[in-house]
Design a protein that fits this description.
The complex is a heterodimer of chains A (143) and B (150). Chain A has 143 residues and is an alpha+beta fold. Helices cover 22% and strands 36% of the residues of chain A. Classes of the chains: A alpha+beta (143), B alpha+beta (150). Chain A: One of its GO terms (molecular function) is fatty acid synthase activity.
């Protein structure tokens, strides 16, 4: 593992560069194919409404995959991630237009472990003004 | 009816090995829009100390979820999958998944809880490579919402 960020350069409270990830219906179809998750709530508006959703929603695992990019882009080596967990609190609603939805992710170092030279990053993921992930935390081993 | 607590601790046989391919990793990385070269360029991955391209952190979910299907579809457990939503997801890695891995997953029911009529099921997946080394542990929390009255 070869993270590009030195453990000693990071403090509790260090903010990671925030990123925004657009998601359209086309994104969801592509993710369905790549992940093998063809649940119709992620591409069929009629079905989604029938089961009580406001519209088609993004795969929770898609949102989870985007959120960790704030950590992996920062650390340089995605293999430096030691653990990663999230709670799916609110769906990312994806309208059928050219714009779709936006997932805005920020991260902050919340704890350091001197022995393991790891830091815990707490992530915040928002879409349409709502927090879409809860307890979103990753531990990453730094250089 | 709540799920039977006696299923806690039950393990299911490991799935047949899943072989991780470079092109499948590329397809997944493109689908999430992640251009990190560690996912697609073996030289870039080697420069970071990996023997081959690695997979994005959440890539292994599809494999673990397939294995968890044995739990979800266990007629004796009787989970109503039409009411299930994905509550939480966790990964704890010994090392990143990489191209060439032949991964097996052993699923175990970690816990069963009942809250306000919802069944909450934690399924742990232990993912090992061909040599038996641990790669990652996945924890999938599934919430089966209470059946509507009437």
């Amino acid at each position: 593992m070869a993270a590009k960020i030195s453990y000693d350069s990071v403090e509790t409270g260090t903010e990671l560069p925030a990123q925004s990830f657009p998601v359209t219906r086309a994104t969801l179809v592509q993710y369905a194919g790549a992940s093998g998750d063809f649940n119709p709530i992620h591409w069929n508006e009629k079905f989604a409404r029938e089961v009580g959703l406001p519209d088609v929603i993004a795969h929770g695992m898609f949102t989870m995959a985007e959120a960790i990019r704030v950590v992996t882009d920062w650390a340089g080596d995605p293999g430096a991630v030691v653990d990663y967990g999230v709670r799916f609190t609110k769906p990312v609603v994806v309208p059928n237009d050219d714009t779709g939805a936006l997932i805005e992710v920020s991260g902050k170092v919340a704890a350091r472990d001197d022995e393991a030279r790891t830091v815990r990053v707490d992530l915040t993921a928002m879409s349409a003004g709502q927090k879409v992930l809860g307890m979103a935390r990753a531990t990453v081993r730094l250089a | 009816m709540p799920l039977d607590q006696s299923f806690v601790g039950r393990s299911y046989p490991p799935i047949a090995p899943y072989e991780v391919g470079r092109e499948k990793i590329r397809e997944f990385a493109e689908a999430v829009g992640d251009a990190n070269p560690a996912y697609t360029d073996p030289d870039a991955a080697k420069a970071l100390g990996h023997p081959d391209v690695i997979a994005p952190p959440t890539f292994v979910f599809a494999i673990a979820f397939r294995a968890a299907g044995q739990v979800i579809e266990d007629p004796q457990l009787g989970l109503d999958y039409s009411r299930v939503v994905h509550g939480d997801q966790k990964f704890a890695y010994s090392r990143p998944v990489r191209a060439g891995d032949r991964l097996t997953v052993t699923s175990t029911i970690e816990s069963i809880k009942s809250m306000a009529g919802n069944d909450i099921l934690d399924v742990r997946g232990e993912v090992h490579d061909e040599s038996g080394e641990h790669v990652v542990t996945t924890m999938i929390k599934l919430v089966a919402r209470a059946a509507e009255e009437g």
